[in-house]
Amino acid sequence: MGAGAQVDQVAAYRRLPPQLSAAQQARARAAAADGALWLFSSSEAITNLCQCLPGTDWSAARALVTHPRIGDAARAAGFGAVHDTRPTLEAVAASIESLNLGNSS
What we know:
The protein has 4 helices and 3 strands; from the N terminus they run αβαβαβα. It has helices spanning about 20-35, 45-50, 70-75, 90-100; strands at about 35-40, 60-65, 80-85. β1 (about 35-40), α2 and β2 (about 60-65) form a beta-alpha-beta unit.
């Protein structure tokens, strides 16, 4: 400011937990119980999901995680199966295929 510069502050990025509608909550709870595979690239996402759906039993759900810390968070949340993968599109696709989720027939 001493040199005559003017400083403006702009929020370029911020993380907020999602606000799920009743329909979204119902869909997520159904996916927690039907063996769905959840892909996580952030342990914060797992925390947010659990906060949005308190008391949900995740033991029938499966998690595909891109880092060991994320896997630890999924296990702590109660996910029944946790599968690790590298955080690349190719590795994630190969992991899904290896879990026999790539085909719907």
